[in-house]
């Protein structure tokens, strides 16, 4: 059975900024979705959703049909309704995989799941990013070159205000001198979360074959083997074994 | 310099239930505060605060003078204002220590910092709890007997809906058959969090000398060596090294 | 392609003690192997090996054909040759999965991979063991009852002298009062290691359907997705990207 | 009471290579010892020991008087006797702190405590190293600039064949493009271990005031609060609570 993926993006830059529209004519979500389909074929069933869709395209029904959700946001984090964020959180805790991408580090859903600031430092200087694998046995790193070279990218720097990752997979080196924990795995409730920092509206990163490889690996890693269930919210009851 | 501790409790049961009032004539907060002073003397400076105080006794000024906050709540979690919870979270991320006690597992502040359900299973049957040390070198376990024996206690059971602890210090065995991760350490932002499950309004657990020892150890462990600072909320700025 | 499993046991008790021989007429290794085949069918290809085989049945050739090795030992840890232990370690670091069972906690290979004492406390009193899942989303816990009930088992107790597990999946409660971290996951090099404590020569634990389920789940979890490779031993070389 | 520190070094390069002797006239151990005394004054009591001393200067008596041991080695790892390595390991598991420095990553004692290859990639090209703090609340990072700038250093690169650190404190960026997990904390048995990569015989890194600050912080962090005891080797006995 294919993994059901919903690729979410705020789609804020694309209609407003010509350079982004030219770079991502089908939207950032379109490029991400195409990459997953390109690499995984019929192992996935991909749909997209954006902020302006009803309920941001993340209705109960859609989430109930989603095994893995990918999240890209930047300018419009605060426009995402708390109700939808709560709904996504419950679904993650119940087993749905979540990929949080690039500036999504500051999204409501990531901050809510992490419990920390999720802040970082940054500089927009089109620097070269080298993504180094530090966990060579991890499924998300499978087949990824060491290093994965991204010619131009926004720079992200430490300290990154996250809980210590359950598994740290990638660390990036930027030509300007920074380092960044660019690939971080978390287990929360029954769900798996992967944060991956490469990917910016200002650079064509989501067409990069090895970035696509990482995202495809991560979708397979985050997919719930046993389906998505009750987030144990109701386990707060007397024991009856 | 003494560690400045604020002992917080909802103080819900005490005025409403005679058995609790007889058990804890100075409130649960009073018993916890007395235990810390008894064990740590002038190494701590302890104050108490309760739900019905203005701003729940947790004003900006009070928090600014608090190195470690202890939190006990049960029936009135939802009555704690979101504004105060947000304020406490920011302070923890800036370095303030936080001890979350017993049914405080379901408090707004713990759930907000963990990002998960924090649910558990329970049974009120006055069972014997044995608290076993699994991290014998940890400062919080110093001098704690193996096992720490609590004659009667509410039973808590797994699965406990928390992120995997950064350090697991204690696991409890209940005579009814359950186990529970009863002593869990977290690092979040610049702050340290310790969850400790023994302690219930229905049992005189906070007079137990070894429970008091654990809480005293935990206060010293959680105290910020370098003071409490900015939670790096504002680090979301260009790099300037 | 089936996962190639080698089930290793010292086979010390079986020829020497009638009660063990009656309990495990095909050896402890035979019971474990049968359980894996019963549950996984042609998803696995299982062979067994014992201490008295040439090279303990763990020649270079056999290991080269092994995806997951399971290890049971008790009385004869010191009779395992250092050369074979070194060979197994290198293979694990290169990606082979390893399941360490019960008294195997004190084997040379487990101690070598952990770097710690791996000591524990114990009592042989045929107590009831309840194995509780603390990581409900973990693949090794899939389908395992909460609790998994073992009528009679040797008691193991904390402190267990291991590094903090990368993922803690099970904690056991013994009717005599102990707790024990009975299911512990580690990532070492490119390999995955799972320690599981239930299973003793004095009790028919390896016929228990849910113990068999755990072992089957663990084999699938530990199998190297990308095959077994160089343990990066030779990566100690100049960088050439 | 002062923390008793033994600074160990193989002292291989110094008598053989003039440039190293000129750089470190009192030996690498001498420079490290001087740095600790300079920063910590009478909070520490520092002695040194080298490979050619009887029992490598690490007799039972010396170790019994050591709270924290620092280890620098490079060319002569294999000349360290297994007996001494075993002795140091037992002492660490009993609570002694251990700081493993630079090329000490490949020492017998570090590999024995980690259980992995501890291999890495490297290049000797006098590149600039920037050491970034990723755990700003950690005591070892206290007062350390972000970044700590080392003008010229040997380059170390990932993958570094270690178990995932219990706490990752520093990550380095090298001007040649590499990243490296340069500050890694482990808890093993009752002891604490800190690996810190900056420091090479070919560069005057151990005179760098901020490197000295890190080492001083690390000595205080690794010192056993409750003294050094039995490594629980003998806990493998029946339970008697």
Protein described:
4 copies of one chain form a homotetramer. The first copy, chain A, is an alpha/beta fold and 241 residues long. Chain A has a domain at 3-116 and 182-235: 3-Layer(aba) Sandwich (Rossmann fold), CATH 3.40.50. Chain A is built from 7 helices and 9 strands. Chain A has helices at 13-16, 18-23, 27-40, 60-64, 82-93, 108-114, 209-222, and strands at 3-9, 44-50, 68-72, 97-101, 121-133, 148-157, 167-174, 179-188, 191-196. A 9-stranded mixed β-sheet of chain A has the order 2-1-3-4-9-8-7-5-6. In chain A, helix 5 (82-93) links the parallel strand 3 and strand 4. In chain A, helix 3 crosses helix 7 (209-222). The first copy, chain A, is globular and about 45 Å long. Chain A starts with a strand and ends in a 19-residue tail after the last helix. Chains in contact: A-B, A-C, A-D, B-C, B-D, C-D.
* Count of alpha and pi helical runs of chain A: 7
How many β-strand runs of chain A? Answer: 9
CATH topology of the domain at 3-116 and 182-235 in chain A: Rossmann fold
User: What oligomeric assembly is this protein in?
Assistant: homotetramer
CATH superfamily of the domain at 3-116 and 182-235 in chain A: Class I glutamine amidotransferase (GATase) domain
Mean pLDDT of chain A: 94
* Helical content band of chain A: 25-40%
What's the CATH architecture name of the domain at 3-116 and 182-235 in chain A?
A: 3-Layer(aba) Sandwich
Could you name the ranges of chain A where pLDDT drops below 50 across 5 or more consecutive residues?
233-241
Largest sheet of chain A: 9 strands, mixed
Q: Name the largest protein-protein interface in this structure.
A: A-B, 38 and 38 residues
**CA(first)-CA(last) distance of chain A:** 34 Å
Q: Order of strands across the biggest sheet of chain A?
A: 2-1-3-4-9-8-7-5-6
* CA-based gyration radius of chain A: 17 Å
Strand proportion of chain A: 25-35%
Question: Element order, helices and strands of chain A?
Answer: EHHHEHEHEHEEEEEH
InterPro entries (chains A, B, C, D): ThuA-like, Trehalose_catabolism_ThuA_prok
Domain ThuA-like (chains A, B, C, D): 5-222
Protein name (chains A, B, C, D): ThuA domain-containing protein
Pfam family, one (chains A, B, C, D): ThuA
